Amino acid sequence: MVDFASEYTPFKTSFENWQTTMFDGMTFPILGNPTNRKVINVFQPDFCRPVQLRYNRTVSKFGFPHLHEYVLKLVDVEKCPEMDEFCPEADKIDITKCLSAEIPAETLYLTKPHLYGHNSSYTNVDFKPDFDKHESTIYFEPITGTPIQAQLRIQLNTNAWIDRLTLNPDGSTDPSGTRAVRRFTPMVWIDQKITVNEEAIKTLKTLTVVLEKINYVHQSLNILYTMIAFVSVIAILLVVELILLTRRNKMAKSVLY
C-alpha cells in the first residue's frame, strides 16, 4: 500500500504507520491450498482505515474445485493495531473524521447490515441478521490469488442528537424543553456484488489446471530428489562400511601372520 490522503478531510497516512502488511484492494497475494494467510488486510480509502478479510472456509463454486472464502471483519485498528486473526470484531466503527472535518466525532459509523454478528438490542429494532443476506464475502482462487466474486454489504449509520418533542392533542408537536437524546439510526445499506466475467473465468481455469500440473510435477520431483538423496546416503554408508570392513580384515590377517 502507498501513502494516502483524503480529498475531503485533512486525513493523511503512510505505510510506516501500520504494524501489519496492507494491500490496496487492487492486487492480492497468492494464498496457496490450504491457505497460508488467515487474514488479508485491505486499506479502504472511503473509510480512511483498513478492513480485514478473514479466512472462513474452502468451497467448490463457479466451476472451481477449490475457492477460499473470506469474510469481512470490522476490526478497529486503533484498538488492535496488529490486525491479525485474533483481533475482536467491533460492532461499529467511527468513520466521521474520514468524511468531514466539521462534523463532531462519534457521529457517523460503519457497521454490517442489521448489525450482523452483534447484539442489536440497544437500537430497539428487531433486526434478524442472516449470513446469506448480510455478511460480506469474497472468493479467491488460491493458486493465483484472483478474486472470483466479491459481495460487499455494509451499513452507514448516524449517532445523532434528537430534540425531544411533546405531542399535542391535535397531533402537532412542540419542543419539550428537555435535553436532547442520542439515537443510533441506520441511514444507508450498501449491497454490491462484483463477479469476474465468464471469459476471464475460463482463461483462469485453464491457467489453474496448468499451474496445478506444474505444481504436481514439482512435488513429484521433490519426492524423487528426496528418494535419490536417501538412497545416495545409504550407498555412501555401505561403501564406507565395506572399506572399514576390508581394512579390519587386512589388519586381522597381519596379526595372524
Short description:
With 257 residues, the chain is α+β, with helices and mostly antiparallel strands. The protein is 26% helix and 32% strand.
Mean pLDDT: 82
Number of strands: 12
What would you call the shape?
A: elongated
Given the helix and strand composition, which structural class is it? alpha+beta
Global Rg:
30 Å
Number of structural domains: 2
As residue ranges, the low-confidence spans are none
Distance between the first and last residues' Cα: 82 Å
Strand-helix topology:
Elements: E1 4-5, E2 12-13, E3 39-44, E4 49-61, E5 64-73, E6 93-94, H1 96-99, E7 108-111, H2 131-134, E8 137-141, E9 146-162, E10 165-167, E11 173-175, E12 181-195, H3 198-256
Antiparallel strand pairs: 1-2, 3-4, 4-5, 5-8, 6-7, 7-9, 8-9, 9-12, 10-11
Folded structure, characterized:
The protein is α+β, with helices and mostly antiparallel strands. The protein folds into 2 domains: 4-196, no CATH class; 198-257. It is 26% helix and 32% strand. The protein has helices at 96-99, 131-134, 198-256; strands at residues 4-5, 12-13, 39-44, 49-61, 64-73, 93-94, 108-111, 137-141, 146-162, 165-167, 173-175, 181-195. Strands 3, 4, 5, 6, 7, 8, 9 and 12 form an 8-stranded antiparallel β-sheet that branches. A hairpin with a 5-residue loop joins strand 10 and strand 11. The radius of gyration is 30 Å and the shape is elongated. The protein starts with a strand and ends with a helix. The model has no long low-confidence stretch (mean pLDDT 82). One of its GO terms (cellular component) is cytoplasm. One of its GO terms (molecular function) is scavenger receptor activity. The chain crosses the membrane at residues 223-245. Belongs to the CD36 family. It is found in: Membrane.
